[in-house]
Amino acid sequence: MIQMKNHILVVVFLSFFADAWCADTLSVRSPSGKIMVKVWMSKLLQYEVSFENKIILLPSVIDLQLGDGRSLSVNNPIKFHFLKNENDVIISPVPEKRKSIPDVYNELSIKFKQPYQVIFRAYDDGIAYRIITSFKDSITIKNEVASISFAGNPAVYFPQVHKRDDQDIFHTSFEESYVYKKMDSIPETSMAFSPVLITQPYYPDIAVTESDLEEYPGMFLQGTGSASLKGIFAGYPEEEKITDADYPEKIVVKRADYIAKTKGMRNFPWRVIIIAKEDKELPSNDMVYRLASPSRLPDVSWVHAGKATDEWIINTNIFNVPFKSGVNTDTYKYYIDFAKRFGFDRIMMDAGWSDYKDLYKINANINMDSIVAYAKSRGIKISMWTLALALDRQLDSALDRFNKWGVDFIMTDFIDRDDQKTVQFYYRIAEACAKHKIMIMYHGAYPTKGFNRTYPNAITRESVLGSEYNIWSDKVSPGHDLTLPFTRMLAGSFDYEPGFLNNATKAAFRTIEGYPMSQGTRCHQLAMFLVYDNPMQIFSGNPSQGYNEPEFMELLGSIPTTWDETKIIDAKIAAYIITARKKGEDWFVGGMNDWSPRDFKISFDFLHDGNYTAEVCKDGANADRYAPDYVIEKILVNKNTVMPIHLAPGGGFMIKVNKN
């Protein structure tokens, strides 16, 4: 063994040559031995996965097909392979779940006669593989084959993409419901973005996604009418046009018959298969982050997580003010005062502060110099919404102007693609923002997939069916909310924008213009700030209501957005979750459930010795009829305390625990 810094590296080198196909089966086990991957070449490169000696993935196929007819599997026998052990720790500068991330795995590298290599990694919480090429010249990728076959008769939480009338199927905002359906009922005409989650009795949960996506299209997953899914990729955009819409964007008019043109020597994205014996293991999984490329920023000290307000969802419909509310200077100063009062770091100036198509045409009702000066005097940061099309066109000058205003966080919206050209856009924008020490959040965007490790200033992302849908639909139900920690969150943090103060029971919910409400209780909304990973949480509730409930808002404002440690106490997919997180010496415990009322007993055995004060916000006695009903109380607890707590239908709770 050779110890280097804080990791241990062991290499075993085995070599053989063959003129025909290699029939030998190679294998790699996870560090604990409970997960095993078998790999072999028999006309096609195939692998099989077992968990605790039970096969969970049947023979599944890997291939990379080039434009000139070459292929990973054609006339390309295995040349040699080697094994490696890794035991490392990743320190996250923006810790979504935990600051110190163990990175422990066994790795099998397979090299072929042609310039291809495939690497398999076996962790105790899943497996991953990636293709590496070493061609001297650039290459055209005709297609990648990623066919995954599952044992048994599985069901899947499937965020199916729906075609828009004037656009191709690959044009999507990545905001869909996770519909539970039998896998063999999904036809080849249906596809979903990842992650997808596969479940069935007597088998572990399996999630499929990807990591380290760069200069390459994202992988969608297509049905086959059987117990298997196959990767499908957007063709390279040959022709584009700009839509004539309120929020214009580039759409693809014609796609090429290949998916990428790229360097001949490169690493391709990781194909990630997360494996969890119990549901509660999923929300704390950070495998996608571990697999991503390390940070490319030499200094990240200027990247600051925090909380912001946003006015767009409530349509600036504030009240009890002596001025006309709207997208104007007085309203933003009001938001600045609210942020200062309740512990928020910044406000977001959302769509409308400028012409959508031109960041230099500022709304006539806004005096940016006055807003910037006022925010600075109050110690509050300003953040800006941008249309991706306008930001791309005016990038350098716009970032200069944002620097002048002291803006260190922007949102860019309406991208709605992940083909190779668009993925390159994400990197280009993040790099440009980093040079200006500006953080960025992408909306209308594909899930993070490890990008936030490579560019920590890309601090969060949308790609979720979140609070804004309450304006026009009933899709954002408590059941939907309870799928997200087990599905979308596996690919990184998301910007749901919780905090609605208008809350409704299932029967009372309505979509009302200017008065959006959420399904479920007030405490259900509060718990999202704790349960959902997001280093830049955004409060979308009405601040005028918040002023009327200062004790509640002070508690909400005190919740951190990055964490030293995360524990999932109990959880069931699409039903309930209880999460405990630590920040410094303080602990925060939060829970949410679907429309079924539940009773739990919360153990505080994660605490150290001594007495603590727990500030508890929980559903009120009448929350089942009047969803905004809640109770705040303070009690003494220690590591032996077991606290009973009742969750109303669509309910929740949040507990802040401080050492005495």
Explain how this protein is built.
There is one protein chain. By secondary structure, the protein is mostly beta strands. Helix content is 14%, strand content 39%. The strands form 8 sheets. Strands 1, 2, 7, 8, 9, 10, 12, 13, 15, 16, 22 and 23 form a 12-stranded antiparallel β-sheet that branches. Strands 3, 4, 5, 6, 11, 14, 17, 18 and 21 form a 9-stranded antiparallel β-sheet that branches. Helix 2 runs parallel beside helix 3 (368-378). The longest helix has 16 residues, at 420-435. Mean pLDDT is 95; it is low at 1-22.
Fill in the keyword field for this structure.
14% helix, 9-stranded antiparallel β-sheet, disordered N terminus, 42 strands, mainly beta
Gross morphology: globular
Largest sheet: 12 strands, antiparallel
Strand % is 35-45%
Assembly classification = single chain
The low-confidence runs, each spanning 5 or more residues with pLDDT under 50, are 1-22
Mean pLDDT figure = 95
Helix coverage percent? 10-25%
What is the secondary structure topology, with strand pairs?
Layout: E1 2-4, E2 7-15, E3 26-29, E4 35-42, E5 44-51, E6 54-66, E7 78-91, E8 100-112, E9 116-123, E10 126-134, E11 139-150, E12 155-158, E13 179-182, E14 191-193, E15 196-199, E16 205-211, E17 219-223, E18 228-233, E19 237-242, E20 250-255, E21 260-262, E22 265-267, E23 270-276, H1 287-291, E24 306-309, H2 329-342, E25 346-349, E26 354-355, E27 358-362, H3 368-378, E28 381-387, H4 388-393, H5 395-405, E29 409-413, H6 420-435, E30 439-442, H7 451-454, E31 460-461, H8 478-481, E32 503-504, E33 518-519, H9 522-531, E34 536-539, H10 543-547, H11 550-557, E35 565-572, E36 576-583, E37 586-593, E38 598-603, E39 612-619, E40 630-637, E41 642-647, E42 652-659
Parallel strand pairs: 24-25, 24-34, 25-28, 28-29, 29-30, 30-31, 32-33
Antiparallel strand pairs: 1-2, 2-7, 3-4, 4-5, 5-6, 6-11, 7-8, 8-9, 9-10, 10-22, 10-23, 11-18, 11-21, 12-13, 12-15, 14-17, 15-16, 16-23, 17-18, 19-20, 26-27, 35-36, 36-37, 37-42, 38-41, 39-40, 39-42
